[in-house]
Amino acid sequence: MFRDENDRAARRSAEAKAKTEARRILEDRAALESDVSTPSSRVDRSPSDALVCRSRDQLIPTPRITATMSIPLDDQGLRFFVDRFVTRLATGSDGSPHVGFVQPSPHVVAVTLDQASRDAVVSVGLAALSNVRNDRALRIMSREKHAMVIKAVREVVENPTQANPDRTLHLIVMLSLYEMVSCTPNQIDSWIVHMDGAAALLTQSSFLLSLTNLDHREHLQFYFVAIVKFFSKRVVTPDLLSWSPDLIPSAPPEILPGVDLVDILIRLAKFYAYLHHKQPDAKEVVDSALFFEDELHKWETQLPTDWSFTVKESNTCKHTFRGQYHVYRDMWVSRVFNHYRWARLLVNETIVSQISKMAQPTPNYVIQRQQALDMISCMAIDICAGVASQEAISAQGVAEDPSHIPLLNGTFMLLFPLGVAGGAAGTPDEVHDWVVGTLERIGCTTGIRRALEMIPQLKKSVGKWRLAQKRWKSIHEYK
């Protein structure tokens, strides 16, 4: 019964999305024809194909896209996707690690062999490029490609037994990325709809087998995405309810910390779901949150030595935080650390907010609240330095085992921890301002509109925190 309902829901979603995209394409074509027929109504554009965004009285130049009009639009979209979102390998001509010569991940070739997979990648690339250039023709083409991908997924929903699970899951991921690139202010979490569709398909044995056959890192990444999805929408889905560490069989030692963290975060998600529905008293919430705080602290102290990272300072590297960035053993470790940090930050934010609700908090709770604020500041700063490290990796390439390197360079997954760090209660003003500037730059240089649409929400959250902190001091701090 549940499978039938999941199928019907996925089918209705795909059909509605297809109709919406068809309408958008027709509207865009009509608007484009209007522009062509009335040249005087067009927006004047600079001869340069570089977009310049104004950010708090500063200009953010977008690197020039070297693509002439003679290059087909498909190829322009594919090139932009590879340039902005694909992990690059730092290797020499003999295949040995060498930072200096950078080439795309070998997975790109496999992705572009299948027409639907290529359309999915191109749709995201064209949508992003159209945002950077403010080019309506690119936007129309991206929506046409996007509609074709939706049609391919709808065919899978109608006949899942004949589908290729790996290809289908890839298409769904690209549909989610497209939503992040093209989102509107009132649809900032629309990417989640497609991931919910993937979760529904994973209730079927063939798709579930495809998931369990993934590399351990890729398998865990699926659960990290599911966890982020929960904290964005506060809906517990079957992929979280069915989690067990036993789903990652024979995990090697270097993967076990990731398994342990996923286990903690899924239990944390269930705890937040409980808070949402039951709304227990503040003391009970604080005690439970302190348990998760201790567990996350223990997780960090028990990491193997090869998970350690160093903090480097540089006056020449761009986009560092306080001139600092992190150096990790590999991309996997850096990504897992980011998940740990935003989770620990949210736990301490819960401690602060719940103690602030107490009419007469004890001295111990007042002390605990300040300790939580200190931890929020620490985690927020580490998230910023970790993001700076991610950007350095993207620019320089990765010199490690290609079989362990993810296709995507992680730009999309940086948005959530940045949002947590930039909008949390107790976030230092310096962190908030840096996060806002980073989101503006990501939005302007990569075309991910979601990064720009997040900023008003962060400013609103910080505004509420400042008012709450002012009220706390007026009541509990005496001079």
Automatic annotation (TrEMBL):
InterPro entries given in the database record: DHMBA_Reg_Transcription_Factor
Entry superkingdom: Eukaryota
Region annotation Disordered: where it falls in the sequence: 1-22, 30-49
PANTHER family: TRANSCRIPTION FACTOR DBAG-RELATED, ZN(II)2CYS6 TRANSCRIPTION FACTOR (EUROFUNG)-RELATED-RELATED
Identification of the protein by name: Pc20g14320 protein
UniProt organism field: Penicillium rubens (strain ATCC 28089 / DSM 1075 / NRRL 1951 / Wisconsin 54-1255) (Penicillium chrysogenum)
